[in-house]
Amino acid sequence: MSPTSATEPPDLEPPGCAVLVIGCGNLLRGDDGIGPVLVRHLWERGVPDGARLVDGGTAGMDVAFQMRGAGRVVVVDAAATGSEPGTVFRVPGAELADLPPLEGVHTHSFRWDHAIALARWALGDACPDDITVFLVEVAGVEFGAELSEPVLRGMEQVIEMVERDYLAALRPDIGAADDPVEFTADGYLRLPARLAAGRFPSDAAIAAVRDDDLWLVPLTGPRSGGLLLKQRNPAGDRSVLVREVLGERVVSGPRPTAWDDEQKALRIPLREA
């Protein structure tokens, strides 16, 4: 360590990102946990480069400082307006100009509006301009309850909108044709980084042999079970062990791939062309 580096203050600012998704709420209070639960679902789908997810239920007032350097911010929280449970409200940034003052705010009542107001106060010009809030109307906030069915449906709507409008552009372009893969002699299937990231963003899949093809079906995340796609190298290529799925078949060498939109699965011929 050089003499000057010891006196330099550490860089404590969070790294910038293209999209920041913040889920606010209390996981222990039924539908009030919509924000943190949604963040967990997004994580299981796979987080593309340039995106960052924050559990606002545990981050507290630090949520405001997480916004520094973000290009676009999405905040998800519960609502209690008296509307039909599960109703989704999308509040664009232009409607967030007038927010309540910060007087009396503490960690036990820190919500999405407080987070944005505090960020504007603390970050000043560094506070992002592009902020959108999604609110889902609650059915109940009983202690220890799970998310209700209406709120689960509302959450899925929000996930699809966040994916479509914010995250899809950050995911790798899989191109018009899928890249070839390679079967190894020790029973692994190697997938190039672009194919793995584009088709299997959560690094989890199930595999099955049908006729002379191996089918790989993406899963939403490791908690769903299945096979894990493990990173092979810094380039992001993946390997998945398929030896047990292949059974007595001996397969090695490169193979072409084709994506089946109807089955939502990757089809890989086992026979050489």
From TrEMBL:
The record's section on InterPro entries has:
Pept_HybD-like_dom_sf (IPR023430), Peptidase_A31 (IPR000671)
Pfam families listed in its UniProt record: HycI
Query: Does this entry carry the keyword Protease?
Result: yes
One Gene Ontology molecular-function label: peptidase activity
Keyword annotations from UniProtKB, A to Z = Aspartyl protease, Hydrolase, Protease
Is Protease one of the keywords UniProt gives this record?
yes
Q: What's an example GO BP annotation here?
A: proteolysis
Q: Which SUPFAM superfamilies match?
A: HybD-like
- PANTHER family to which the protein is assigned, alphabetical: HYDROGENASE 1 MATURATION PROTEASE (PTHR30302), HYDROGENASE 2 MATURATION PROTEASE (PTHR30302:SF1)
Family (UniProt): Belongs to the peptidase A31 family.
Its protein name is Hydrogenase maturation protease
